[in-house]
């Protein structure tokens, strides 16, 4: 089993940056594809970005293309989400998730473990 804890959320002005971290427990972190999802108020949770177990492949939604990047440090059991050029529409609770998958999936049903989320608020 994997437990995930997100951190790094907060309030930032539009155009600013934030880096989220997701720390995982468990010895098999390096076996999992890791993804970030977000849920804005009144909306369904949506895919943001994901990274394969090796870090060699990533996949992102069109809405964050060129602004968000994902990385992982398997030695530290941590995945990161670097968010640049933030927009008010990026305001949401951000969740990290782990999937037993060979590819960076965008499908929520493929993710077995989820964190509790961290709030990101972007002011205009």
Strand content: over 45%
Order of helices and strands: EEEEEEEEEEE
Number of DSSP strands? 11
Largest sheet: 7 strands, mixed
Helix-strand category:
mainly beta
Total DSSP helices? 0
What share of residues is helical? under 10%
Average pLDDT score: 95
List keywords for this structure.
0% helix, 124 residues, 7-stranded mixed beta sheet, 49% strand, mainly beta
Topology:
Layout: E1 4-7, E2 10-13, E3 18-24, E4 33-39, E5 46-51, E6 58-60, E7 68-73, E8 78-83, E9 92-99, E10 111-114, E11 118-123
Parallel strand pairs: 2-11
Antiparallel strand pairs: 1-3, 3-8, 4-5, 4-9, 5-6, 7-8, 9-10, 9-11
Descriptive account of the structure:
There is one protein chain. The protein is an all-beta fold. It contains no helices and 11 strands. A hairpin with a 6-residue loop joins strand 4 (33-39) and strand 5.
